[in-house]
Design a protein that fits this description.
Blueprint lengths: L4 H4 L5 H14 L5 E2 L11 H12 L12 H15 L8 E4 L2 H12 L5 E6 L5 H7 L3 E6 L10 H7 L4 E7 L11 H14 L2 E5 L20 H5 L1 E6 L12 E4 L2 H12 L7 H12 L3 H21 L15 E2 L10 E2 L2 E2 L3 H12 L1 E2 L1 E2 L9 E4 L4 H16 L3
Parallel strand pairs: 1-12, 3-4, 3-5, 5-6, 6-7
Antiparallel strand pairs: 2-8, 7-8, 9-14, 10-11, 13-14
Helix pairs in contact: 3-11, 4-11, 5-6, 5-10, 12-14
The structure holds pyridoxal-5'-phosphate (PLP).
Length: 397
């Protein structure tokens, strides 16, 4: 079959591909050490599950309004106000089929052929393909580990052109765990606002924040910035609800209306019963979120301690999210048997073959020195896994 140029121009999600590889090994009976997970290892809290069950029992199983139920939209408005100090009206928020869908819709609503979208690297794997699927050009801007993988105003000014329509900022970051301070965000956001560039602030890991840090939402940095920012969030990571597929966003009315139009012609509303569960997540008790965060922070500490024992490996200490992104550049050029390890893909393949250990090669995130290790897993797996990494590295010559 002759498929579209559009679909031929992108690759499947490498993180989901790795999960599939690890699952296949596991099905063969191999005891896979999985650092590949892009999701919390906790179950969805009971009160949230009950709200989903009740929705079914109440027969809440029909179409809802395209941008989400009024009740869930109100819960989102209340959340933005309570946690982020943001005022959004009912026509400024919408519910999407997972957070991934929010960025996808924005690209479809905003980008024309050859428009440019700035994507700082390391980036979340889906940003560049989403730009390409909309006909646009992702402008990848590398950042350095020494700068905490953060973009500077100088980097941004260099990357902007007359065709720049938007920029993705993801803090706390998947894959680096880096978090922008308000002082670091402000000049970037001011610059974008002054140029009419939409700042797409992906705040999916908002509550997963370490060392007592406080979160600042980009749109809260000033009225002009608010007008040029789309705030993306969701329940997937915060409430361990990845399978429910509910994300949401707040932003300028015309943008939300445009995204809603596309949603109406593609997915229609997000699942009715999942919306009821998400409403309970946002309105219900929040202690569980802090409790999960404490686990993530302890695991971060454990992983960093063990990582420090790996010769030649440097790792930025994650300030949020549940990923560490160590650099293994010192091992490139070494050999496993007669195979030369040339980059992150070779090394990740080696870890999988040698140690039955799954982790995502940094090349998927636009940073080939590094490999992403998810610490959304038990202390036992972290201990066993880092030991296995150490042994596997020692065998390289
Ligand atoms: C997981 C994730 C999302 C959204 O996930 P959904 O499962 O689609 O809700 C968005 N951005 C980043 C950076 C993520 O890691």
């Amino acid at each position: 079959m002759e498929l579209s140029r559009r679909v031929m121009s992108i690759q499947p999600s490498p993180t989901l591909a790795l999960n599939a590889k690890a699952d296949a090994l596991r099905a063969e009976g191999v005891d896979v050490i999985n650092f590949g997970a892009g999701q919390p290892d906790f179950n969805t809290p009971e009160n949230i599950c009950q709200a989903g069950i009740k929705a079914i029992e109440d027969g809440f199983t029909r179409y809802t309004p395209v941008p989400g139920t009024p009740e869930l939209k109100q819960a989102i408005i209340d959340k933005f106000k309570r946690d982020n100090g943001l005022d959004y009206a009912l026509d400024q928020v919408m519910v999407n089929v997972g957070g991934k869908h929010s960025s996808y819709l924005i690209m479809q609503a905003l980008i024309d052929e050859d428009d440019e979208v700035i994507v700082p690297a390391p980036y979340w794997v889906s940003y560049p393909p989403m730009v390409i699927l909309a006909g646009g050009r992702p402008i990848i801007v590398p950042t350095k580990i020494e700068d905490g993988f953060k973009l500077s105003l100088g980097d941004l000014e260099m990357a902007v052109s007359g065709r720049t329509k938007a920029i993705f900022i993801n803090s706390p970051s998947n894959p680096t765990g880096s978090v922008y301070s308000p002082e670091e965000l402000l000049p970037l956001a001011q610059f974008c606002a002054s140029r009419g560039i939409l700042m797409i602030s992906d705040e999916m890991y908002e509550p997963i924040l370490f060392d007592g840090r406080k979160f600042t939402s980009t749109a809260a940095l000033g009225p002009d910035i608010y007008d040029h920012t789309a705030t993306l969030n969701g329940v997937s990571k915060a409430y361990a609800m990845t399978g429910w597929r509910i994300g949401y966003m707040g932003g300028p009315t015309d943008l939300i209306k445009a995204c809603s139009k596309i949603q109406s012609q593609s997915t229609s509303n997000p699942t009715s019963i999942a919306q009821k569960a998400a409403e309970e997540a946002l309105n219900g008790p929040q202690e569980i979120v802090a409790e999960m965060n404490r686990h993530f922070e302890r695991r971060r500490d454990l992983m960093m301690d063990l990582m420090a024992e790996l010769p030649g490996v440097t790792c930025y200490k994650p300030e949020g999210s549940f990923y560490a992104f160590p650099s293994f550049g010192a091992y490139f050029g070494k050999k496993a048997g007669d195979k030369v390890i040339q980059g992150s893909q070779d090394l990740a393949d080696y870890f999988l073959e040698e140690a039955s250990l799954a982790a995502v090669p940094g090349i998927a995130f636009g940073q080939d020195d590094c490999i992403r290790f998810s610490f959304a897993t038990s202390d036992e797996v972290i201990e066993k896994g880092m030991k296995a990494v150490k042994a596997a590295l020692a065998k390289l010559a």
